[in-house]
Amino acid sequence: MPEGPLADDPVPCRVVVCRDCCCGSAKVIGVDHSAQVARLREATSVTVAACLDVCDQANVIVVRPSAAGRAAGARPVWLGLVNDSDATEDIVSWVRAGGPGVAAPPDVLDLYVFTPPRRVRTAQSDATH
Fold this sequence. Notes:
Elements: E1 14-18, H1 33-41, E2 45-49, E3 61-64, H2 67-71, E4 77-79, H3 85-97, H4 118-127
Parallel strand pairs: 1-2
Antiparallel strand pairs: 1-3, 3-4
């Protein structure tokens, strides 16, 4: 169960983790992919998605705003190259603080943010609603 200011939010901040052809595979070495998903699940609801079609950014994690975050105008934040436990911990901290539109992300996460091609954003949005 999520902790922090949005623990009572009817639609809390959620995370989508890409796991398919590149993300979550042996192609991304030195990452305990199962542990990464388990750690994120300790903070919020996690959807494991098939390929999000941005393989050059593997491992990809999308942080989706809570209802409060969406009401504040936040959009999903795409994070790429999330291949170390420190980055995962930064995401966990941000999600527990409220995520997009509610809490500022740790500055270091700026290094991971990317904008996926429009066709990918549309497909991911359709798949997770």
